[in-house]
Each structure stands twice: as structure tokens, then as C-alpha cells.
Amino acid sequence: MKTITIKDIARELNLSTSTVSRALRDSSEIGIETKARVLELAQRLDYNPNPVALSLLSSQSHDIGVIVPEIANPFFAIVIAGIEDVAFAQGYHVVIYQSHEDYEREVLNVKHIANRRKDGLLVSIATATTDYSHFKNLHERGFPIVFFDRICEEIDTHKVLVDDFEGAYLATEHLIKQGCDRIAHVSGPDHLLISRRRLHGYRAALLDYGKPIQDDWVVSSSYDAKNSLEIARKLLTRPDRPDGIFASSDNIAIGCHAAIIEMGLSMPDEIALIGFSDLPISALLNPPLSSVAQPAFEMGRSAAELLINLIKNPGKYTTPISNVLKTSLMARKSSLRKPV
């Protein structure tokens, strides 16, 4: 199917391409009658402006790049829905990229976003990323970037995250109030800020309630159920088996949940379990998984609003904003020994 161009319209009306272009842009240099003829033919021929050409003229594509570790993760799917809710209302298109938790793929995604003239970038960094130079280079060139959930501390730009410390404290406190004395923590990767903050919240709650803090009860896992399943199996075969587990994410908790069932232990009587994120599947497990809920949709909305403000007002928001959202405890049968 032939694409109609400005040249086609100009040829049909015996006008110059520059006259047609100015008429389509409603320039005051073009008479009303000429504008009407151009617009009527453009509509009849179903002319659609070339978005790449328009972006070259305006220096804006009205496209926003979004990099997430996995779209299949329901948490990121909900965040993306929040991003799109704001972006669509503001006239922006959202282009999704996946890093699949891989550093090299994340670097390629960033290069593609920059080369394709996207107006800005929203990103939650990959687990494997420890070198942030690809983000630093882009940021130093004045490219608008906003981090969400998994953020980079080394770059002074807007960030949206939840209060990971408070959420972890609430989760650990909940296990303590249910009567748990030996509480283990299956943490996320050590280099990620969200993992460290959740670990600090766990330790603070144990300290405040006079519970033992044992380094060998803290084990790091990638954010997936397969890896945490193996880790939980080892924890549960120890002579000093924990009677409570706080997992740094629901994906990690799902692996722990499977290990507990596999070993024939009852939840919550023999071992109580709580995760972090409150994925939709968590309430469907048997027993349903307790979790710390994150406002994922609001996180997406907030990140998109901050980015679009950066795009529309370059140089105005010189002081980085860190928007910290509150979490809430969702207590279910996997941890509930006593009425809340």
C-alpha cells in the first residue's frame, strides 16, 4: 500500500512542498483558501505525517522508553499500566524494553532508546547490573531519566520507590507478633539497594524486639522461585530450622512456599512465611501467602509524571526528587497464627 507524502499532495495541487508543509502546520504565511485545499486533499488521501520526520523537526518524538527486567512479572506489568495511564493522557507513546535481568541487554536497550530519539527513559535496573556508565553517559548528555523500584544511587535524577525499610520492618514485626523466634531472611541480590534496605528493616525489627540476629539465617537469592526453592530446602534441613521466613520478594517467597510444602511442614504452625510485593498469585496459593503490598500502579504514574515534567521543562527541575511510596501489610494464612 502506497504511503501518501507531502510531495504527492503538492503535485496534485500544483503547489510547492514547502507551501504544503506550512499549510499542514497551520502557518500564518499561508492563505485560508490554500490551507483549506491542502487539508481537504490530505484528508481525502488519508495522509499521515511521518513521525520520524516530525521528531527531527520538533526535536521530540513523543515516545517514552521504558526498560523493565521482565514484563511477565505482574509487578512490572502493573507499573507499566500506571505509566501508560499518565503518558497517554499527556500525548506520549510508551515503548517497552526488557532487560531479562541481563546487563548487556540493558546496555543495548539504552543505546536503542537514545538512537531512536525517544524523549526520555523510565528504568528499573537489571539484577546483573553493577556498572551504571550507560545510564551516566546518557544522563550527562542531558537525556531525561527517571528510575523506579530498582534505582541507581550514583545518578542525580528523579526516583520513585517504596519504603523498603518500613515494609521489611512490618513483615518481620508481624512474624514476631505471631510467635516466631527464629526468623530467617531470604534476601535479594546484595548489590541492589532494595535488597539492602529490606535487610536493614528485618534486622531493625529483630533488634527492637530482642530477637536473635544470626548472619547464617540471612541468605541471598536472585529474584526467582527456582533459586529460592533450593535455598529454602537447605534452610529447612538445618538442626536450628527457622520457624519464620521473611522473603525479600513474592517470587522468592513462592520458592520458599514450595519447599515448605515439599518437606511436609505446615504453614503457619511449624513455619510462618511472608513475602514482599503482593503479586496477584500470592492470594491464590495454598495456604495464601502473606505479603507486603507495593502500590505498583501509583509507582508507574508517579514515575511517568516526573519524566514528562523533565521532558517538557528542561533545566527547571535541577533538584532530584525521590518519591517514596508507602507499603501495607497483607496478612494471610501462610503466617497468621493469631488474629491480627
UniProtKB/TrEMBL annotation:
Sequence ranges assigned to domain HTH lacI-type in this UniProt record: 4-58
SMART domains: HTH_LACI
Keyword Nucleotidyltransferase included in the entry's annotation: no
SUPFAM superfamilies: lambda repressor-like DNA-binding domains, Periplasmic binding protein-like I
Gene3D superfamilies named in the record: 3.40.50.2300, lambda repressor-like DNA-binding domains (1.10.260.40)
Alphabetized UniProt keyword annotations: DNA-binding, Transcription, Transcription regulation
Alphabetized GO MF terms: DNA-binding transcription factor activity; transcription cis-regulatory region binding
Short name of any one Pfam family annotated for the protein: LacI
InterPro entries membership: HTH_LacI, Lambda_DNA-bd_dom_sf, Peripla_BP/Lac1_sug-bd_dom, Peripla_BP_I
PANTHER family: HTH-TYPE TRANSCRIPTIONAL REGULATOR GALS, LACI-RELATED TRANSCRIPTIONAL REPRESSOR
Name this protein carries in UniProt: LacI family transcriptional regulator
Organism for this UniProt entry: Spirosoma telluris
